[in-house]
Write a structure and sequence with these properties.
single chain, 309 residues, alpha/beta, Rossmann fold, N-(1-d-carboxylethyl)-l-norvaline Dehydrogenase, domain 2, five-stranded parallel β-sheet, five-stranded mixed β-sheet, 10 strands
Amino acid sequence: MRILSLGAGAIGGYFGGRLAEAGRDVTFLVREKRRKHLTEHGLRIESVFGNFEGSAKAITESEIDGPFDVILLTCKAYDLPSAIDAITPAVGKDTAILPLLNGVAHIDVLNDKFGREKVLGGVAKIAATVTPDGTIKHLNDWRYVTFGEQDGAVTPRVQALADAFDKKSVVAKAVPDILQVMWEKIVHLSTAAGMTCLMRASVGEVARTDEGAAIMTEFLERNAEIAAREGFRPSEGFMAEYRKLFSDKSSAYTASMLRDVERKGPIEADHVLGFMLQKARLHNVDATLHRVVYAHLKSYEQRRAAGRL
């Protein structure tokens, strides 16, 4: 199994690095600066599940030498068009593309470009960052990757990919309901990102206000209704878990999108909240909160683009 990881950052570097550590044939498709660093220093991972330091095969776009069996696509949504251009020469007749992006909107884009049979669904749950010296630092015990075929079949290729991980440093699972998993994740993500960005505060800080918990729960219910009308109603267990989360006055939880805002970086406003606003309107779900959240995030993008942050 030839595996190509687009990027060697926090997500691609961690999952790709663990596959390399397990002896799999992994190549990292990176920019020239990162290729030079990996060639000279190798790949380093620091984690409570064991550190790794070893050589890494790294290439740039011009060095792609034919199709790969699996491509890990770990870019941000706003980089998806350039990422598609980068991986296209590596896609062959039997290639499986595993996108680990937030949301679900990218699936249709990839299906249109490469064909549905080549595109897996997938979600990652991990907290990691790249330190100034290029080390991938694993921040907690999250190291989960879940994926599957869009049609629900547990095929030999998804089972082989799950088996390629070591089960300790990465918990990989091939499932028959990956689209359900992805829709539940965007219900959670759009609620958390929308509310913590709008309020510029953690879940607990919002919940401690008079109206905060009620507003967050209302937004959760709206997002769940959108998923239900798309054919992916969240389970009762899921809803109970997140109703509890968004009422937790002690929670320090913030979405990564808020951290992106706080560092004045680019955000996935269209891919996550814009997408859910479109779906709310399509299905005649009350979109009042979606409109406010989306306008807030797009206003941030306007100020950032004008250099006024």
